[in-house]
Amino acid sequence: MSRRKNMSNEAENTAHATGKDLGAPPILLTKKPTRARASAGGRTKTACIRTFGCQMNVHDSDRMRRMIRDAGYAEVLRYEDADLVVLNTCYVRENAVDRVRGHLGELNRLKKEGRVKKVALTGCIGAGQEARDLERAYGIDLVLGTHNTYELAQFVGLPGMEETFTPELPGTEGEHTAFVTIMTGCNYQCSYCVVPSVRGRMVCRPMENVLLEVRRLVESGTRYVTLLGQTVDAWREDGRRFCDLLQRVADIAPRVWFTTSHPSNMEDRTLRLIGQKDTLVKRLHLPVQSGSDRMLKIMHRGYKSERYRRKIEVFRDAVPDGTLSTDIIVGHPRETEGDHEETLKLVEDCSFDAAYVFKFSPRRGTEAAELPGTVPEEVAQRRFLEVLRAIEQSAFRRNRRKIGSVEEIYIRHGRTGEDGKAAVGETWSGHAVHVVTDAEPGRYVTAKIETAGPHVLYAGVPFGPPR
Ligand code: 5AD
Ligand code: SF4
Question: From the CA of 138, how far away is ligand 2's center (Å)?
Fold first, then answer.
């Protein structure tokens, strides 16, 4: 998806300095033929899955896609061609709920016309307080939260399952890239965040269970594994910490990344491991949210900006060629001009390579939604643009440093650029690169970086054939 489309997909409350994909159209992740064909009056049944929100949701959708495929459904891209539509939703910001309402209204109409038979609402909105209202208002057939996604299996006619994350049901077996969830939920209580109430407390998957899934994926041809969790670096089991698990995974899989981390859990040895281990992508996503200690306290983030800065120093020292990205919220209740200035200062000091900048959005049931000191919309908008501009400048400056270097590039998507010419790849430093090649996703090419924008690098013609 092009950068411009990606940005316009977003409501005005969010902007990304890199391409995090919210509310993307459904992607056919499995290219394998459907095993059995479920039939509806002699024809194959069809299903459409639409995903909103974060990578956790993309991954949950992969699992549901597997279930649907195993039940004999063929996947289609348009609602009007689908017997079953699954909306896998995000609840993090208010505009996400509004957008899902729009989709539900459309689906309700298609159902009345007899074109869509069943609608399932899953994901974070499914687990939230609004789910019952939506179910009634739009005649939804199945509502599932994030903890019981596995119940979809029975709904589509498969034998019942009892848990969602098992090596028996990897999301993307046989694909070049795969997500592996290592923990669910979150034990923090950030003032603004709805995740703890919709995803529950932290549950860590046993190490052996994770490693089994990674081994199977690698045997099935997966070349890039991303470990997932809301606070992935909080993973622990019997005295073992995230760094131990990461090391084991990086011994098995040829290319590994992880997201998303919490600064309070990020150990220095993990940062050093990123620099040392050649199968780890040298990119760290470490959300800071604000540069002001006063705001970090109000947000209950559990660290001060000095501690965050120190982590970044360790990272830059251990991984000199690495990329660093973050999340920042502007306009949280009680944020003053002084707090905002401190965020801008932190952005300057940390030289981020990318960031997701969010305007605060009050979420029902969170502490921040009840706090006095609301920041007026026009002030929040100005601060938002100021942070965004600072991030883009920093990203552009850092990206330009890569010009002239020769990079090994992992091809993530084939020629899908705006003009169909460039494939989208990723360097070991975690930079996104456009490169003109016919190489298949999952292959590597080597090429020289010729130019750079704030979001992406552009490489010349690769040297030699893809590997
Ligand atoms: N308003 C704005 N941004 C939010 N985020 C989470 N909750 C909110 C909210 N209520 C942002 C945080 C988090 C990212 C995934 O979404 O920056 O890190
Ligand atoms: Fe939400 Fe905070 Fe947990 Fe992240 S750490 S999921 S922002 S509560």
Answer: 30
